[in-house]
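Journal club prep — side note

Before the paper discussion, L.F. wants everyone to see what a predicted structure for a comparable chain looks like in token form. Sequence:
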Amino acid sequence: MDLVKTVLAIIPIVWLILSLGVFHIRGDLACLIGFALSLILSIVGFHFSFSNSITAGIDGIIMALWPIIYVIISALFIYNISRKSGGMDTIMSMLTSITKDMRFLVLILAWGLGGFLEAIAGFGTAVAIPASILIMLGMNPIKAAVVCLVANTAPTAFGAVGLPVTTLAKVTGLGVTQLGYLIAIQLFVLMMLVPFVLVMMTEGKGLKSFKGKGVLVCTLVAGLTFAVPEIFITKYLGPELPSIVGSLVCLLFLVIIIRGYSKKDEAGSSSNEKEEKAQISTAEKIKAWVPFILVFCFIIFTSSMFPAIHNALASVKTSFHFYNGANAKPVDIDWLSSPGTLILLSSIIGGAIQGLSFKEMFSVLTSTIKQLVKTIITVCSIVALSKVMGYSGMIDVIAVSLVTLTGAFYPVISPIIGVLGIFITGSDTSANVLFGELQVQAAHALKVSPYWLAAANMVGATAGKMLSPQNIAIATGATGLEGKEGVILKKALPHCAWYTAVLCIIVFVAGKMLSYL
């Protein structure tokens, strides 16, 4: 282990931790400085040529723009289109008309709807929207913020139409389907546990929180109906649809079961309440869901399940090398098969069906891009930083040092690195870009499955999501709690601790078991 090189290699990472976590510097500025540090250190400390450093950085910026930024813009665009057309209001009204029991509402809104919003949009929508609705329904704002932060953990692995997983596969060179499947396997226990924790947080009475007709059953169903479809979808279709399908199946089962338990209450409800529930016609309900139905259909029909369509679209791509140094990987731009293209097309068609003009949709698109300017700078900087660190050998040095220090117990801390990654960057995708290659290099050094440790990085990032300053800022903004970030962080910390501890045990123990199979 080269101590000097190890210290130099971790400087950009230490900078990101201090600048974002301690000094609270803006994410875009902190990441730009981090990128600049990686360029300087790669040249001075790792004898990386100036031209290779610059081209490696540009290589990262191109990858950040396509597909990462493209998918983020498209995902937020479809959400904003639904808000502009009123479709999202209809969807929320449909979900909130089912029950008045806050425990059921948390399962429906924070877990089910939050999971769906994370699947199709991400970017904090899964925290902001459910939290604001729960407050309107009478929940304490701080509790609503923390509940939604805890709910927005396990479902985020396959958020934004699988972008974190596809990006992780791309930066590590691992097969995306196998990688996604192992992520779903690692998440299974946590997907089952989180709904139980949400109910206990809501009621505040420990195990007594499950008293009442159907509460225990619905909590169990919430986990099973989300987790099981995720595993099957990842294994047979890939990482784009698991959270979309899982959240929709979860919502469907929850609505049916909760309605079944609530029939007696509905029979005794006032005529005014019944009229309110009947105000939304079937046509309006379908129209509200059209953009998301189209996303689902387009992704299904362009997947490997339909090889003729899939191969035809995948063939329309541009491939080139911008960085030409050692171990260079090609830059691939998939023009038609990118999830960004499919979501963008769904947004335009869905928006037209919902009555928006192309002028209105263009206005929504431009405002969406403006909304994301700082995010674009942040993501471009962090991906460029990662590429420079990877190609210059800085990541290799960190991996060797960690393996040397921890030995066979490295898998125990593997998820914690994912937690650190998302705390630094605020994004599962960026956390995977930052540390995905490190996990693979460590796996090779230990002679364990690179898929298993890369998956641990992704699942670790889901744990750290609730502590991410970016996510907490979104939660405080949506709940009117600006200035209370420290309070929310303090309340979320114990939940991150148990979640991470469970994950570390799963990764270490199950990893050992798999190695003997």
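L.F.'s comment for the group: The first strand starts at residue 317 and ends at 320. Keep this in mind when we get to the figures.
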